[in-house]
Design a protein that fits this description.
Radius of gyration: 17 Å
CATH class: Alpha Beta
Number of helices: 11
Structural class: alpha/beta
CATH superfamily: Aldolase class I
Number of domains: 1
Strand content: 5-15%
CATH topology: TIM Barrel
Largest sheet: 8 strands, parallel, barrel
Bound molecules: 5-bromo-uridine-5'-monophosphate
Number of strands: 8
Order of helices and strands: HHEHEHEHHEHEHEEHEHH
Distance between the termini: 11 Å
């Protein structure tokens, strides 16, 4: 299965430009860690981006929680992405009709498509959501992930919802290159979907609001996901951000090496 090939092999074959550059940089930097920087000030966000930059393949943002957002923040994030060689992923979770998400993605205060290499969408509105986002994102070389499975307790993203989401991705592989999910989603060697998995932690198994954590080993080796997304596990203790980023990067990369070894 494609999922078990090396990131470099998958970079060489992948039809989607965004997936190719992601796999290439993962191999170059030896990291499958994405840090979710869920902080509410520009200063904190930039400090985390600069501190974790050397250790991540993707910096995941929730730009709408930043109280003092301005265009300079977006510009500086782009600069840091270049400086440290990572991709930006605005975890916007679009969920409306095509015509509306098109404006939400390209316009408004945040102009997400202008700076974020990757974004994501719920599949609940049907395929029009992909068509709307594609109109804006594809000409800019952006890529889309679909939400096939969520990490939180009681999530409705299961069964035929997940299966249909995969079918939607399959029909839109020019723009959709993977999923936010908890398991690998490939069905055959002919397709290669990148799976980024949130809900990753080494020290706790959940929070008080329904989040559920698994270890990098469970996520990468047992479930066949490609990228671990870690938020509070990395930025939770402000004086340990770099140390935790190093720790999760190592755990994620060792799990990947173990997976490759097991499937040689
Ligand atoms: P945490 O601090 O590691 O729990 O943060 C997880 C991040 O991943 C946070 O930004 C969530 O919005 C995001 N997330 C998630 O936790 N679970 C999901 O299913 C999806 C996104 Br989709």
């Amino acid at each position: 299965m494609n999922t078990y090939k090396t990131y470099a092999e998958r970079a060489a074959r992948h039809p989607n430009a965004c997936a190719r550059s992601l796999f290439e940089l993962m191999e170059r930097k030896k990291t499958n860690l994405s840090v979710a920087a869920d902080v509410t000030t520009k200063k904190e966000l930039l400090a985390i981006a600069d501190a974790v930059g050397p250790y991540v393949c993707v910096l995941k943002t929730h730009i709408d929680i930043v109280e003092d957002f301005d265009q300079d923040l977006a510009d500086q994030l782009v600069e840091l992405a270049k400086k440290h060689d990572f991709l930006l992923f605005e975890d916007r979770k679009f969920a409306d009709i095509g015509n509306t998400v098109k404006h939400q993605y390209g316009k408004g205060v945040y102009k997400i498509a202008s700076w974020s290499h990757i974004t994501n969408a719920h599949t609940v509105p049907g395929e029009g959501i992909i068509s709307g986002l594609r109109e804006v994102g594809l000409p800019l070389g952006r890529g889309l992930l679909l939400l096939a499975e969520m990490s939180s307790k009681g999530a409705l993203t299961q069964g035929s919802y997940t299966t249909e989401s995969v079918a939607m991705a399959r029909r839109n592989q020019d723009f959709v290159f993977g999923f936010i999910a908890q398991h690998k989603m490939n069905e055959s060697d002919d397709e290669d979907f990148v799976v980024m998995a949130p809900g990753v932690g080494l020290d706790v198994t959940g929070d008080s609001l329904g989040q559920q954590y698994r270890t990098p080993y469970q996520v990468i080796v047992e479930s066949g996901c490609d990228v671990i997304i870690v938020g509070r596990g990395v930025y939770g203790k402000p004086d340990q951000v770099e140390a935790q980023a190093t720790r999760y990067r190592e755990a994620g990369w060792n799990a990947y090496l173990e997976r490759v070894r097991q499937h040689q």
